[in-house]
Amino acid sequence: VQLQESGPGLVKPSQTLSLICAVSGASLTTNKYYWNWIRQPPGKGLEWMGSISSSGVTNYNPSLESRTSIWRDTSKDQFTLHLRSVTPEDTATYYCGRSPDAYRVASDVDYWGKGILVTVSS
After folding, report:
1. How much is the pLDDT for 32?
2. Distance between alpha carbon 67 and the CA centroid of its chain, in Å?
3. Which of 28, 33, 37, 91 has its CB 3.0 to 4.6 Å from that of 49, i.e. a possible disulfide?
4. Per-residue confidence (pLDDT) for residue 3, from 0 to 100
């Protein structure tokens, strides 16, 4: 199983950050798996942002829910993150990852993407 994040490395404040996670070696619809977006600001810990389940149900971190959307394209085995109204505090390395159950801690993720650094700056 491989996951690969892609998207712009630089986003301006107030714009929308858009990232795609391409999955190979697995299907987004395989039963009971969750597909997650997780980020790590420089010098800080991991923060779970949200997930989409194998049945298409989304869940979000309450602290980010008002600005976050996750959806999937099952024909391409890709899932997408949109984070609206970004600020410099959203600068982070963004990871996608698969978990066999609903995410609670980082060790729940069995496959990770390599991560992509996104900087929010004018």
Report:
1. 86
2. 13
3. 37
4. 98
Listed in sequence order, the residues at least 6 apart from 3 whose beta carbon sits closer than 8 Å to its beta carbon are: 21, 22, 23, 24, 96, 97, 98, 111, 112, 113
Reference 98, options 77, 68, 120, 67; nearest CA is 77
Q: Tens of pLDDT along 88-102? A: 999 999 999 999 988
**28: which 2 tokens?**
């987004």
Its sign, for the CA torsion 17, 66, 93, 73, is: negative
Q: What is the 3-state secondary structure (H, E, C) of 31-81?
A: CCCEEEEEEECCCCCCEEEEEEECCCCEEECCCCHHHEEEEEECCCCEEEE
| Residue recorded with tokens 């800080």 | 44
Q: What is the pLDDT of residue 121?
A: 97
> Residue type for 76, please?
K
* β partners of residue 120: 11
Question: Which stretches in the chain have pLDDT values below 50?
Answer: none
